[in-house]
Amino acid sequence: MNSKPINVLYVTPESLPYVRIHSLGDISYSFVMAMRDEGVDIRLMMPRYGIISERMHQIHFINRLTNIKIPMGKELIPASIKSSSMNTPRTKVQAYITNNEKYFSSHKGIYRDAKTLELYPDNPERYMYFDKSVVETCNLIEWVPDIVHIVDGESSLVPAFFKLLYPEKFQKTKFVLTIHNFEEQVEAGKLIYDNLGIPKKFKNDFYHKNKFNFLKAGIIYSDAITTSNHLYKQAILDNPELSNGLAEFIGNKEFLSIPIGIEPWTWDPKRDKLIAYKMEYDFEDFKYNNKIDLCNKFGIDFDPTIPVFGLILDVNEYEAIDYFTENAAEIFKNENLIVLTIARVEQKYRNTFNLLQKKYKRNFRVLYTNDLSYFHQLFAGSDFYLSFDNHEPTSLNVMYAANYGAIPIVNDYFIDRKIFKPYDPKKNDGFAMIFKKEDKPQLYDYIREALKIFDDKDSLNEIIENARSQKFSWNEGAKEYKSLYTRLIKGK
């Protein structure tokens, strides 16, 4: 007789197919699909932001979860929890979507104003409200999950609400917190505690360095902590500054690094619906045609003899943005390359990029967009992928690049060399060119090496094959998470 499947509620601020701002949107979607493949009965819960189309995603009312009252201090603010389903050709996952005009549907951005890219000042209040809606939903539908799995700062109040507001009802539920990046802690002023609805005797669990800190609460009230990169995990334990001192609250709890993967239906060159030309038999033909399409979209002349370098710069990666602009003159010394950039940045950086476009009009173009289709097209049409990132330890974009045959030239920000095998020109082995940002000549050397490789088609194809042969799969990680869930449920 088969045992009962593990019931999991996965709580996230963003997920495909509804919305994707950071890599978390990809990870949330691919994770729940992978866990469903492992036989876990997993459901997802997230907010319904103003840019999410209810019609497109078939988001519909749940009668008993319409106009429920969420306490925020002295106010009772109504929410409607709606339902949708996340589908791939192989599986389906139910999603609960928190609807509220004040906090979410009136906002056209996610974490930041869509026009100014400034963080919404009421983010702490918004996500406190969302976290409360998670608990109230489970309470009202009488569902006691075996595991509630939360991710990053925005959902980190959820375990405390379950344990302190309904201690008897959810006493058997265990809580897992995944921290992809300790930088995103979600902090607020002292007065926000009044909205919690939790006795003041627990107040110290929510404050760190005189600020209300979501992530501290998540660490304290969770039963296990995970991250996706073993190098990052060790650095967090070794260097208190990397976690803003929060690592000390992990204590004796299980703290694991569990590898992530990419979604095999969404990010597959043979099936990708967002690129101009799917890969059939000939990789060179795939890359050639997607490169033409990419150059056309960026409004730059296509030249088959010149390599295309893809680059992604985001609003919170200020060091990477500054690094690129400071080194642009050296990068573009050789005119036999093109750099195509997807950027989501504030106006001051747009002004800088616009000047660079004028200065290097034959070699540099930028698109200001967060349209996911352009990300797919960038990887499909680029010969090399540049990353100056000093912020994202998941290395997800490096996985995408390798999977689409864009050879990574990446800053060594917790890059796992067991996964991204370094390129060795003597042996013509490996595929990732990993440099240290402080060693600028090393970056320039790799760019010059890339130009040589591009002209040597045998070497180029061999390195691409090395990159594309990697299996960036969730198989290992999903099994580890299922094992963790089982241990927690059994009290081990």
Describe the structure.
With 492 residues, this protein is α/β, with parallel strands linked by helices. The chain folds into 2 domains: 7-263 and 474-490, Rossmann fold (3-Layer(aba) Sandwich); 283-468, Rossmann fold, CATH 3.40.50. Helices cover 34% and strands 20% of the residues. It is built from 14 helices and 19 strands. The strands form 3 sheets. Strands 1, 2, 3, 4, 5, 6, 7, 8, 12 and 13 form a 10-stranded mixed sheet that branches. The chain has a 6-stranded parallel sheet with strand order 16-15-14-17-18-19, with helices on both faces. Helix 4 (158-165) packs across helix 5. The longest helix is centred in the N-terminal third of the chain and has 18 residues, at 123-140. The two termini are 24 Å apart. The mean pLDDT is 94.
